Structure to design on (356 residues):
């Protein structure tokens, strides 16, 4: 075989491999899925949340926290700096209030992603943990919430070599948490273009405390949302590219043991847990290909999925809301309180709807 023939063979083999990888990526992103509208009554857009509301978490008394203004590689974004909002869901006005940020914190590079709240049982102090991506790096910011003047007090920044591509977080103490890494590589081009084509189960879950940092679960294609059961015995992890939610049991040493996975049929992002029923509420991307190949004429849709009886032999998976992107694009989180459903998005608006 001549040199030219060998080069031609290599090019043909590479083209075939690339084609196969693209087909696989389209399959994992559900590129061929067409969404049927499934709207809820009385959905209205929340004010001041026009540039994303990537994560929402709600305390038992109806106080909600929202991260806004995420700039995520490959997704549309604005020049607006990151912000944290709160909403008192016991107030019928349901008005987002921007929290005052501390002066000793770098607001210019604030790029908030997943959030979690921990209430200290000893004194009811509320701690807000925020995944932050300044210059597209990963770190966790810890704040104390001051309700009287709607402000956050900056406490510390947590960095670690195992927290290299953090997506979401669930706090389990005043200085401890579980976090998901959604990529294996850290180089922006490699993680954004090459890694999705490789589509390998290389992402993980990390446990962090000041004395112990370790990988506690791995083998995910895209470890995304994470949360904890009301009894604190189980951790839930959404694998975006594998279209399921994993149920993991917490051990005494804070490692996690796989219990099972539940298929959801969508690319689910963040997980919120109803503290009373234990139901899981998921903000999902029904067609991830449209989100990655953003076209305003054919926008990415939104989907909310509810999982009931997740620990039973037959969990109940229900689509609660679906929109083709003309009302809300790229839903990433859904959370409920008092018969209301809040739906947040990566880069678009946020909605509040009446549940049927």
């Amino acid at each position: 075989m001549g040199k030219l023939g060998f080069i031609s063979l290599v090019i043909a083999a590479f083209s075939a491999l690339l084609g196969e990888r693209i087909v696989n990526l389209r399959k994992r992103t559900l590129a061929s899925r067409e969404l049927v509208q499934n709207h809820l009554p009385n959905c209205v857009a929340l004010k001041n949340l026009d540039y994303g509301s990537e994560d929402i978490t709600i305390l038992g008394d109806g106080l909600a926290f929202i991260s806004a203004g995420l700039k995520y590689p490959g997704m549309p974004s604005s020049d607006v700096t990151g912000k944290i909002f709160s909403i008192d869901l016991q107030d019928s006005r349901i008005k987002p209030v921007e929290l005052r940020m501390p002066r000793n914190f770098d607001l210019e590079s604030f790029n908030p992603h997943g959030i979690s709240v921990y209430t200290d049982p000893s004194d009811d102090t509320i701690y807000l943990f925020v995944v932050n991506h300044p210059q597209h790096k990963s770190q966790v910011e810890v704040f104390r919430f001051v309700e009287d003047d709607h402000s956050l007090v900056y406490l510390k920044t947590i960095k670690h070599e195992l927290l290299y591509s953090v997506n979401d977080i669930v706090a389990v103490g005043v200085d401890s948490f579980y976090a998901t890494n959604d990529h294996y590589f850290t180089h922006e081009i490699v993680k954004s273009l090459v890694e999705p084509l490789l589509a390998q189960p290389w992402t993980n879950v990390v446990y962090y405390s000041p004395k112990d940092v370790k990988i506690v679960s791995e083998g995910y294609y895209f470890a995304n949302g994470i949360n904890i059961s009301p009894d604190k015995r189980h951790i839930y992890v959404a694998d975006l590219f594998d279209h399921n939610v994993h149920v993991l049991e917490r051990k005494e040493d804070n490692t996690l043991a796989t219990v099972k996975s539940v298929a959801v049929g969508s690319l689910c992002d963040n997980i919120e847990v109803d503290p009373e029923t234990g139901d899981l509420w998921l903000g999902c991307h029904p067609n991830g290909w449209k989100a990655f190949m953003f076209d305003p004429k054919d926008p990415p849709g939104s989907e909310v999925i509810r999982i009931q009886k997740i620990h039973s032999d037959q969990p109940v998976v229900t689509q609660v809301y679906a929109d083709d992107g003309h009302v809300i694009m790229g839903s990433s989180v859904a959370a409920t309180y008092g018969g209301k459903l809040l739906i947040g998005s990566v880069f678009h608006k946020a909605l509040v709807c009446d549940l049927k």
The longest helix spans residues 3-28.
